[in-house]
Design a protein that fits this description.
GO cellular component, one term: cytosol
CATH class of the largest domain: Alpha Beta
GO molecular function: 1,4-alpha-oligoglucan phosphorylase activity; thymidine phosphorylase activity
Catalytic activity: thymidine + phosphate = 2-deoxy-alpha-D-ribose 1-phosphate + thymine
Strand content: 15-25%
Oligomer: single chain
Keywords: Glycosyltransferase, Transferase
Number of strands: 18
Structural class: alpha/beta
Number of domains: 4
Helix content: 40-55%
Organism: Ralstonia pickettii
Strand order of the largest sheet: 1-5-2-4-3-6
CATH superfamily of the largest domain: Nucleoside phosphorylase/phosphoribosyltransferase catalytic domain
CATH architecture of the largest domain: 3-Layer(aba) Sandwich
Length: 504
Amino acid sequence: MRNPRHRASLAVRRMGIETQQEYVVYMHRDCHVCRSEGFEAQTRVLISLNGRSIIATLNVVDPTLLELGEAALSNSAWRALAPAPGDRITISHAPTLDSMSQVRAKIYGHRLDASALDSIISDVAAGSYPGTHIAAFLSACAGGRMDLQETIDLTRAMLAAGKRLDWGHAPIADKHCVGGLPGNRTTPIVVSIITAAGLTMPKTSSRAITSPAGTADVIETMTPVALDLEQMRRVVQREGGCFVWGGSLALSPADDMLIRVERPLDLDSDAQLVASVLSKKIAAGATHSVIDVPVGPTAKVRSDADYECLKQMLEQVAQAFDLHLQVVRTDGTQPVGRGIGPSLEAHDVLAVLQRAERAPEDLSVRAVALAGQLLEFCGHSEPGTGVLVAQRLLDSGAAWAKFQAICKAQGGLREPQRARLREPVLAERDGMVREIDSRRLARVAKLAGAPKAPAAGLELHVKLGDRVERGMPLFTVHAEALGELDYAFDYLEAHPLIDVGDSR
C-alpha cells in the first residue's frame, strides 16, 4: 500500500467494539484530519502505523466519546496494527479499488475472467472491500450467474490468496458437509475412525456464522482448536489427524470474508459454495474428500434437482484441481442427533465414541456410513467392506482412544459444559410427529444463546414418526441467561417447530 500523503498523526486507543473481520476506525466529528481530508462517515481510509497498513471504514462519533487529536480502533483493526503504548497513527484516503470495475461489469451481466477474479479476491483478502462491496460482488454472482469456468477461476483465486499445505504423501482424507441440517456432527467421529484406521486426516473446520454451531465451536468445548500451522503439523505427525479451526491458519482468508456477508444475506450461490468448500479442501492438502449433502424440505439443499446440479458442479471443479471427490446424498428431512448447539452436540459426539447407551443412533449410523465410504474411497478397505471396518473401529474403542489422543496432543480433553437453565416444550395433543422444521429449530437454538454461549441450544426428544402423548416433552431449550431463554420462547409462541397430528 502507498504511504499516506499527509503526515498529521493521531493518538490511538482501542474502542472495544467487535466488528469481526471488517476494520473500523472511530474519529472525533471535529477532528482536524477529518476536516482537512474531507472525511465523512463510511469513508474508506488508509491507516498506517510503524510500516503496517490497513484499510478501514470510518465512523464519526460525538465529542463525548473521543478527544480531539485521537482516534479509536475496532478490535479487529487493533489486532491487525498492534499499537504499542504511545503510538500514533496516520490516516489518509484509501487507494482506488480498480477491481470494483470488474464487479460492476458482472452486475451488468458480463463474464469474469481469471484475471478479474484474481484482482477481486486479492482485494477482498487484503481487507480492501467493505461489506457493501462484498455484498455487491456476491449478489452479482448469485442465482446461477457464474458458469463452470468462472467457478473454477474463483476457486483458483481463493487458493492463490491464502496458504497451502503439503503433507508429502497420499492419500490425505477429508470429509465435509455442506450444512443446513442442525446436529449432524459426524465430523469428529469420522476423523476418529479414519485416523484409528491409520490414514491421515488433518481436519480444518469453520466456526458458526449464522448457525447454532460449527464443527470448530463443538470441538472447542472439549479441546483447543485455534492452533497455528506448526502446532497443527506436530499434532498430525503424532496422531495422524487433528481438529483445527481453519480461521487460525489463513488457508482461505478471502472466503472467510465472503461467508461473513453471504450467510446473513441468504444468497443462493452454488458457485460461491463450491469455490468455498473446495478451495479449503485443496488448501488443506486433501487428496480424497467425501462431501455430505443432506437433502430435505427445510435443509440447505431442498430437492433432488438442486442436489444433482450441486453434485455436478462440485465434481467438475474438483476434477480441474485433481481432487478426488465423492458426493453423497443423505437424508435431510430432520436433524441428526439430539443436541443443537456446541456443548449439546459435543455430548452427542462423546456418547457415540464411548458407545454409551444414551448415544443417538442416527448420528452413529450416519458417521459410520460416511467413514466407511471414505475408507473405501482412499483404498484402505475393499468395496463393500468400509462400513464393517468403520463399525469395528468404533465398537472396539479404537476410535474413542484416537479421539482422546488427538485432543491430548492439541492441549487436553475436557467435559463440555451443561446449561444452567433448561425448560421443556410439551406436546399439546396426542398423535404422531409428522414434521420437524430444521430451520426454525436452528433459530430457537441461536435465540437461546448458541453458539456464543456454548452450553446453550436445544435438545430434541422426538424423531419423525414417533408417537407422543399430550404433556410429553418434544424438546428442551437450554440457556445461560433468562433473557435469552425468554427470547427463544417468545419466538416459539408464534413459530411452531414440530407438527404433531393424526397418523393418517
